[in-house]
Please model this.
Amino acid sequence: DAKTTQPPSMDCAEGRAANLPCNHSTISGNEYVYWYRQIHSQGPQYIIHGLKNNETNEMASLIITEDRKSSTLILPHATLRDTAVYYCIVRVAGGGADGLTFGKGTHLIIQP
Amino acid sequence: EAGVVQSPRYKIIEKKQPVAFWCNPISGHNTLYWYRQNLGQGPELLIRYENEEAVDDSQLPKDRFSAERLKGVDSTLKIQPAELGDSAVYLCASSRARGNQETQYFGPGTRLLVL
Model:
């Protein structure tokens, strides 16, 4: 069973920040939060991951609450190409090669 | 570097026919995965290889599905015979040797339609 809860869909205006929430209230201390996205007709693409500190890379920022029960993926300036399904996944530390457990994700639609 | 390559991209077959999917992982990636993705759902792991060894095939329906990775590089996933419910996208992914948090890189998938 997926350990995360995400809204099924969200809209965001082009050029604005897209904030995608994820609840993982049963996360363990040794589990990371991962985000992948899947653009239509493509395979999933890694975005970012974190344990407890906020993380930022060239694609996005990840904000994890202090109690680690929820997180938010932020796309700072959304473009039409960011329209995709976004998956929030929890994954145990040290399980580097284990398969990923995907839920249904959030379908983010960027509006022009 | 080249990404994960899968072929064919699309396949339409009649039920009870056999079908095979091929995957070439990223060069140097020892771990290879096959996932199945049903319409409107996230991908589900079918099998994971470490080099040529299948280390997790608990979700592979072994009555009709088989997979191989003979030389620890390319892999083939086969279904025989196919059923209507096998219509899905079959995704291959790869990652480097076991590490703390290895990123998985996915191919574009093979979209199978069983009629």
Q: What stands out?
A: The longest strand of chain B covers residues 88-95.
